[in-house]
Structure prediction request, 236 residues.
Amino acid sequence: MSTLLLIAEIGSVHDGSFGNAIKLIDLASKCGANAVKFQTHIADCETLPTAPNPSYFSSESRFEYFKRTSFSFDQWVELRGHAHNLDLKFISSPFSIEAVDMLESIGVDAIKVPSGEISNLPILEKLSYSSRDIIISSGMSDWKELDLAVDVLSAVKNLSILQCSSIYPCPAEKVGLNVIREMQERYNRPIGLSDHTLGIGAAIAAVTLGAVVIEKHLTFHRGMYGSDAAHSVEPH
Prediction:
């Protein structure tokens, strides 16, 4: 990977609105990103109606939220097509084996293993046979877990690894830029940063250290409902 891949992480900021998802892709293009990333949740395959609720879901359960904000197969295909029409790569994170199958069928450009799934060996083993580009995020992992994930995915031709601190928002002193060069030497793969800070300084610094993938959450406004908007960057 010789050029910078700048990923606008849309995640679940669309809040289940297909129109918002389309407009967020438009926004990512206008802001200069060259890829958009979503999250593919299939509630019945990854959680239970009785699962504990995060504090930011005060009016609905986690299960209900994933149900309400999910898209149909045809809608995913349309979102991918819209991104491609704007010359954006289309990426998503699966949270179940079934979601991996769906993303493969949709024809995404890359699949990202989110931090919370880095030790989910069934998903990693499934992805080890994929011809897609694979990106993994290191948040919440120690070296042993990350080494195992990279080893399981060793047959993947285009595998990128992102330094990530799973803190929302992440204070500057905990970004872990010092790990980027260690990752480069340890894995000999393209290295990047999944940046949860509120500014853009950490991402710029990461590029000066050799990062070739940058992921930033993008929102219309930080006051939007949901799990991602509050720590996302706004268009300006």
